[in-house]
Amino acid sequence: MAMAIENPGTRPARKGTNWEKWGWIYMRVSGVLLLVLVFGHLFSNLMIGDGVHAIDFGFVGGKLSQPFWKIWDTLLLWLALIHGANGMRTIVNDYVERPGLAKTFKVLLFLSAALLILLGTFVIYTLDPCPAGADPALVASFCNA
Ligand code: HEM
Predict the structure, then answer these.
(1) Residue 111's closest CA among 93, 90, 88?
(2) In testing the pocket of ligand 1, which one of 30, 73, 128 has its CB within 8 Å of the most ligand atoms?
(3) Which of 24, 69, 89, 132 has its CA 20 to 30 A from that of 49?
(4) CA 104 – CA 126 distance, rounded (Å)
């Protein structure tokens, strides 16, 4: 039996911000930005100079003493963790049928992403590249100047 749908092009008016729509837009925009950030990150850590063999405390201290890499890493950290956690939230919404379990997973996802964002940001902005008393062979070259 055929069923008529009244005004099929219209939806009931909803009040407030459409968070699912903004979440959808965030995933597309951050996905494009992350392609640039991740490949820039891999290129600078693996391809330039001695590549992966150059990575030690001095290398990380040298990078994180430059505002450019601080901003790059901050964007990479925040965008990737929010992108990953929100993507997992969508998977939980799609596949976890028990409401209590779904809620628990989403709270855990939020807490783990928030903790990693806080800890990572703390490291990026507080790392001391030239700790007092460190072996000069292990720190960035500018520490010994
Ligand atoms: C073989 C692959 C990788 C290597 C060798 C590597 C190496 C490193 C190194 C040495 C650092 C500290 C210095 C710096 O900022 O560059 C770092 C930091 C970081 N990496 Fe990677 N990485 C790799 C892949 C990735 C991927 C795929 C992602 C994200 C999708 C990522 C995200 C980050 C973030 C967010 C930081 C900053 C962490 C912080 O201090 O808060 N890395 N990585």
Answers:
(1) 88
(2) 73
(3) 132
(4) 33
